Amino acid sequence: MIGIGIYAYRKSTATSADYILGGRNLPPAVAALSAGASDMSGWLLLGLPGALYATGLVEAWIGIGLFLGALVNWIVVAPRLREQTERYDNALTIPAFLANRFPSRGVMLRMVSAVIIVVFFAVYTASGLVAGGKLFQSAFDGSYQFGVWLTLGVVLAYTVVGGFLAVSLTDFCQGLIMMLALIIMPAIVLYSGKGAGFAQVQETLSGVEGFSLDLWTPDMTLIGFISLLAWGLGYFGQPHIIVRFMAVKSVAAVATARNIGMAWMGIALIGAVGVGIFGRAYVERNGVVIEDSETIFIYLADNLFPGLITGFFLAALLAAIMSTVSSQLLVSSSSLAEDFYKLVLNRGASEKTLVAIGRISVVAVGAVAALIAGDPESEVLDLVANAWAGFGAAFGPLVILSLTWPRMNGAGAVAGLVVGAATVGLWIFTGLKAATGVYEIIPGFVLAWLAIYVVSLATKDRGEFRSTISAPAE
Q1: CA dist list (Å): 284 to 47, 219, 320
Q2: CA-CA distance, 262 to 39, in Å (whole number)?
Q3: Are 13 and 241 in contact (CB under 8 A)?
Q4: 30 in Cβ contact with 173 (< 8 Å)
Q5: Transmembrane segments in this chain: where (predicted)?
Q6: C-alpha span between 395 and 403 (Å, rounded)
Q7: Residue 32 DSSP SS3
Q8: Model confidence over 288-316: pLDDT tens digits?
Q9: What pLDDT, on a 0 to 100 scale, did the predictor assign at position 146?
């Protein structure tokens, strides 16, 4: 990974466009697996299998919602974003695109967007570092805190040096490792030991209290079902994912990238479900007690495989963690450099200065995330859920409507951004999430969409209405 960082440093860090977007020249396969790997993170190997291990197949609705959301994201957002970010003054970040698209509120959009990105990415990055700490603690019986800082240190080593190209190329390699691990492990676990196989898994788990192999359980409510599926809404507003759409080498290459990315995602999600369900059956058959359900992947790797294969699986987990952390740190630093430093502090900053500020910002955001991750009792899935909802509600309706609705204007864009982020924050911190059982992305997304629509219609045209917005030909 560090070697890739050095290669990328020599090839693509001369300008901010190179450091932030790799010169908009990513091959489809690299863009696809980079988007997938930066999306799934340690959540795929810890959080999702842990949720399935704890309660059963009903948690698979999260994966179904994510798959559907990602597919729509590739179809609706990807080609339009690739074309329009280049057309609107070659915007290098999502805040810069929004500012160019809505110049009447350009400065406010960039600054508010930058704040939201840095705040929520600090939390999101912390989830990856928590996963790294749990890996080091569970697999090597080491210090959780040391694992957090070691994970951050390795990621910083190649992200600071190589920028976006390094992150994307390492994501591609890490995505392949993750996919292989999620094919091999479930298959081996399913057929390991006496009485193995699908029928035996069903028999073993049928009597486990609080666990079900049904996709729909008697205590499942409509609100609970919608909240699980609603994870898919988050895709439209995740800067570290949709920035890959901006970097793919051409609009025509988006369709190829989409097909590769969705195939990878389908395999990975099915594998993660298998790890959680088959892992629970294995544990029940052998009378093992696992205190933290999110460590089932680590337990299986340690106890079912020889040392070399165990090392491969732990490398897959570390790859999942690093791929997302590096992407999040880079997007945060890009926003701080382009949308805050250049905009507020030094409008005449040189390309060399902007790259240097970007590197400093990577380290700063990483350090804050490590402090947030300091509690070893933190749950990966909970941290991911909060940050995912924040981005999805704040940026999701904003990105979709800015690309597809000609009547939208800058006032509506600011309203949607603020309402979406504020709703998610209030839903979490006032206890409404716990009281209602409604995932915070739902009210945030809906209210942000309404705010954009109502405010845009209620305010006048400042020359921002576009009559030519359409999907570019693939």
Answers
A1: 20, 23, 27
A2: 12
A3: no
A4: no
A5: 51-77, 107-126, 146-169, 176-193, 222-243, 263-283, 303-332, 353-373, 385-403, 410-429, 441-459
A6: 12
A7: helix
A8: 888 888 888 888 888 888 878 888 888 77
A9: 87
* DSSP character at residue 24: G
Q: Please state, in angstroms and rounded to a whole number, the distance separating the CA atoms of residues 327 and 310.
A: 26
One-letter amino acid for residue 353 of the chain: T
Local structure of residue 250 (DSSP, 8 states): -
**Helices H, strands E: what count in the chain?**
20, 0
Task: Please name which of 139, 85, 154, 37 lies closest in space to residue 403, comparing C-alpha atoms.
Answer: 85
Q: Which CATH number characterizes residue 302's domain?
A: 1.20.1730.10
The Cα 203–Cα 196 span in angstroms is 10
Within a domain: residue 262? yes
Q: Give the length of the chain.
A: 474
- DSSP annotation of 90 reads T
Domain assignment present for residue 59? The answer is: yes
Number of domains observed in the structure of the chain: 1
Q: What is the reported pLDDT for 213?
A: 82
In a domain, residue 449? The reply is no
User: Hey, what amino acid is at 422?
Assistant: A
3-state secondary structure of 130: helix
Give exposure, 236-274, as e/b (b: 16+ Cβ within 10 Å). bbbbbbbbbbbbbbebebbebbbebbbebbebbbbbbbb
Domain that holds residue 69: 2-381
CA 320 centroid distance within chain: 11
Q: What is the mean pLDDT of each run of 10 residues along the chain (474 residues)?
A: 52 53 75 80 79 88 90 93 85 83 86 82 79 77 83 75 65 79 87 70 82 80 84 85 85 93 93 91 84 84 83 76 72 74 71 76 82 73 78 91 90 93 90 84 94 91 58 54
Residue 260, pLDDT score: 94
Closest CA to 75 of 463, 403, 423, 436: 403
Structural domain contains residue 455: no
Neighbours of 375 (CB within 10 A): 11
220: buried, middle or exposed (CB in 10 Å: 19+, 13-18, 0-12)?
middle
- What is the model's pLDDT at position 270? 93
